[in-house]
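ok, trying the design again with the full structure, not the truncated one.
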């Protein structure tokens, strides 16, 4: 290998290292990948021998006209095809190259098209067609490309005289997550404001001599205020639990607990409570230990929420079955709660675990629901690396199945429950 070739390879390695360092300072994954693509393309072009080397084991490949362009490197198309993000090259307001992802998004015939036809976004097309446009700074957010509800970040970089490299990054999921966050804040504010407004109204009424001086009226109003305060307290507690579980969702559960003990304890407390429906809970499969990897307090909360839902929405006097056992494969523990209620229409089932989603808002509030019960259950199951299934038939009732990981033989017992190590 000639000295010139060694120098060229060293320069290419330096360019790659520089790109990696620049990418390391970026906080966004899309921006890091964009920097690495650009630096990798330049390094690939520098490392290739465009006729400068003398000694060759085989004849050089024939390169089309304008050999100084990166796009004419024989491996250029394979390089951009390796990216899962759509990548385009634009020159003189026309698409000159596109990887497979870009062709799937914009059409198989996108190469050669004018950018206004190819991208179908007025603002993006204007920047791509303008040779004097500056492309540093934040990416351009595009909507309406591909599917109607898809959102993309477009990053543009100059890579040569008149050439622009364009990378599109799908931001649909992050936009949906942001909408969920905004909706959550709005719903939480509304749910808190309702009891606060009610309490404030009754306080103002009681401050009037006519209402405040009547003992029966005062007793009734104070009872309503106490109920609204309890509802608000439950909502705040659920919000705090949801926040804590989300903060811990990446921390694996490393303790073993006896699910049968937890089930017996929770069912006993509900049976001894003020709600007579608690005495309709029927346990099955609790006679033998069922040791799982779990957080005791969270699994108790899971059981409380699932059983409370069955108590609210099952018909009075009908049994609420709580059964424990193993999955069909025997690899996971199974917890199943069934009620004999009105059931749930199929179109509602996929959304039952959404925060504040209610099938019947009026009835749920009347029964004291916060709209967070099944959302908390889903978060707890996810944190335990388990699986949640909800099945229902209208007029027949609802069944909730939870699959949890059986404890490892070397797992530590949870001191709160005294569960033995390993499966029981």
């Amino acid at each position: 290998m000639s000295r010139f070739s060694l120098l060229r390879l060293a320069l290419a390695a330096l360019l790659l290292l520089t790109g990696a360092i620049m990418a390391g300072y970026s906080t966004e994954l899309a921006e890091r990948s964009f920097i690495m693509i650009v630096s990798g393309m330049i390094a690939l072009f520098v490392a290739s021998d465009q006729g400068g080397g003398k000694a060759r084991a085989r004849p050089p490949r024939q390169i089309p006209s304008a050999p100084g362009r990166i796009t004419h490197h024989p491996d250029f198309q394979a390089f951009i095809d390796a990216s899962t993000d759509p990548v385009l090259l634009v020159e003189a307001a026309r698409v000159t190259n596109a990887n497979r992802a870009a062709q799937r998004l914009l059409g198989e015939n996108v190469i050669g098209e004018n950018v206004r036809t190819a991208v179908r976004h007025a603002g993006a097309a204007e920047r791509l067609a303008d040779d004097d446009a500056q492309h540093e700074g934040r990416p351009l957010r595009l909507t309406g490309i591909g599917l109607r509800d898809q959102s993309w970040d477009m990053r543009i970089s100059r890579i040569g005289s008149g050439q622009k490299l364009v990378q599109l990054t799908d931001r649909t999921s992050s936009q949906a997550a942001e909408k969920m966050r905004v909706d959550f804040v709005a719903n939480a504010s509304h749910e808190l404001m309702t009891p606060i407004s009610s309490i404030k109204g009754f306080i103002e009424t009681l401050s009037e001599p006519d209402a405040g001086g009547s003992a029966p009226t005062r007793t009734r109003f104070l009872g309503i205020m106490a109920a609204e305060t309890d509802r608000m307290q439950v909502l705040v507690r659920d919000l705090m639990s949801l926040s804590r579980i989300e903060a811990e969702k990446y921390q694996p559960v490393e303790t073993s607990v006896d699910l049968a003990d937890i089930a017996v304890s929770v069912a006993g407390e509900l049976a001894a409570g003020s709600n007579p429906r608690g005495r309709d809970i029927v346990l099955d499969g609790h006679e033998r230990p069922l040791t799982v990897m779990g957080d005791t307090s969270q699994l108790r909360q899971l059981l409380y929420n699932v059983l409370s839902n069955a108590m609210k929405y099952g018909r009075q006097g009908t049994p609420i079955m709580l059964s424990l056992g193993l999955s069909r494969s025997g690899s996971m523990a199974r917890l199943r709660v069934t009620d004999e209620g009105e059931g749930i229409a199929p179109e509602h089932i996929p959304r039952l675990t959404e925060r504040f989603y209610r099938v019947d808002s009026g009835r749920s509030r009347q029964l004291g629901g916060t709209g967070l019960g099944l959302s908390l259950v889903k978060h707890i199951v996810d944190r335990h690396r388990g699986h949640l299934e909800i099945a229902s038939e209208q007029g027949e009732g609802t069944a909730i199945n939870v699959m949890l990981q059986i404890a490892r033989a070397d797992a530590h017992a949870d001191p709160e429950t005294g569960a033995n190590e390993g499966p029981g």
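Keeping the full-length input from now on. The first strand starts at residue 87 and ends at 91.
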